[in-house]
Design goal:
By secondary structure, this protein is mostly helical. 77% of the residues lie in helices and 0% in strands. The protein is built from five helices and no strands.
Length: 138
Amino acid sequence: MKNNQMIFGISPRYVELLVVLIAFITLISGLVQLITPSTVLNLIGKSANTEEAIHFFAIVGMFMALFGGMVVHAVYSAVTNKQVMLWTAFQKFGAFLAVSIGVFKGLFSLLALSVALFDLFSGIVFLMYLKVLSSWEN
């Protein structure tokens, strides 16, 4: 595949831009969740916030920020790092499943499904970018 060939009808450069946008959204939302976990939990949670829930929600925010930053770093690195995209896609699919299960168990509000769907979309985009990276190597 050449650099200018489309992937699922999208230019490889637009896929890369989508990856960067998703990474920045993940980084920023992770930092917000790390700094003010109770505020975010109040938006998407259904039950009263316990100290334990707030603490673990902040930890999740920290890992979101780390993954978002790692992806930005990988995209702009001089060395192609397909492993970062693969594992970040796995993380996004895992987040989709975990949040969806939380909604269906009544732990999160229906608004949290938008977060889950964003993670699902993000995982798909990261796999598309993995395909872009593989094509650029050939």
